[in-house]
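== Polypeptide entry ==
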Amino acid sequence: MRILIYGLNYSPELTGIGKYTGEMSSWLARRGHQVRVVTAPPYYPAWSIREDYRGKLYRTERVPGEPIVYRTPLYVPAKPTGLKRMAHLFSFMLGSIPVMLRQCFWKPEIIFTVEPTFFGAPLALLVAQATGAESWLHVQDFEIDAAFDLGLLPSHGPVHSLALSFERFFTQAFTRVSSISHKMVERAQSKVQNKGIPTEHVTLFPNWVDIDAVYPQAPSAPNSFRSQLNLEGKILLLYSGNMGAKQGLELLAPLAASFENDPRVHFLFCGDGAFRPTLESLVAHHRNVTLLPLQPFERLNDLLNAADIHLLPQRAGAADLVMPSKLTGMLSSGRPVIATADAGTQVARVVSGASPAEACGLVVPAEEPISLHAAVQRLIDSPELRATLGANARTYAVQHLGRQQVLEQFERDIQALVRAHRLN
């Protein structure tokens, strides 16, 4: 098949959406499909275009056996505020117009568009209409909902109504819509309900993990991070990933402070993003905290296995707008997770398990530091519970999140979609 992938984030970004879109595109190309990608230069999560990608507005990357990648220009604010984020997203759509229109001559059979950014949806649909291609919208983040619900933009008034109408109209126009969790699929279905849209219009396409690359190491096994940081014998609590607005990272500093007098405990915060300078200042004087930059993929398994407990903080209201990609690696590493999420959200469902016997960790209400402290204390004091929850986490990852099984199902879905179109 000829597959055109249109999305803001892509490899070599190490975290978030770029990682998944890059892995998916390479996997499809290795399966023999013709794959082209229209994307931006790597900038996330540092919010700065990588130095080796600067100085050229447009570039084309061709590697044998890999997708052809077209990089288009965009505005990247050093300090992303609500309006600057909107300008950033809109700039990618504008910069990608000439490259996307050129793809009309290639005649893709399916156009796969990743949200964010939803600003690109009209352009993707235009190219699909011009070429007779099927169109697929994949929602990694409900960026419009998140912008309002997290206070990045005002949640009432004409701007709010216009944005939701714009989103609903174009979501309905795609042949297929998918998202990464059952709750997010339900949210997407609510945007197209009562419009004569069939149920199968919206489907599940979850994020995945390479369960062979991220796997549990024995607690007694040597760990490069523990030895490098002189943390042998400590109970290590790890947050690793993007440090942005929706993560609720402001809870981490007081949490670390509350355990400062417990010599058993140490906190490791690893990553990059807009909130990192603030986090650095908040923990600057805590002797039980170590900060590391984002680590390369080849050290990911060692990093995740350095943890005794994974921390997954989130702001209230975010848990069903986004499904944190870092959760897949946490689970695959076979370590328990403490997540801040409201009951009934997808994050809470996964971490709590279908039953208490299948729980992968503990869930506490978002933005409740006392409950978070109590959950951490419970796991610190119970190595047996940590081992049980960690084993459940690994089992869940193997059964539900393996990369091969997720991508094979996706391939079957897009092949069926294109076959049905040909028959019509």
Notes: Residues 243 and 273 are 4 Å apart (CA to CA). The chain has two domains: 2-208+402-423, 224-400.
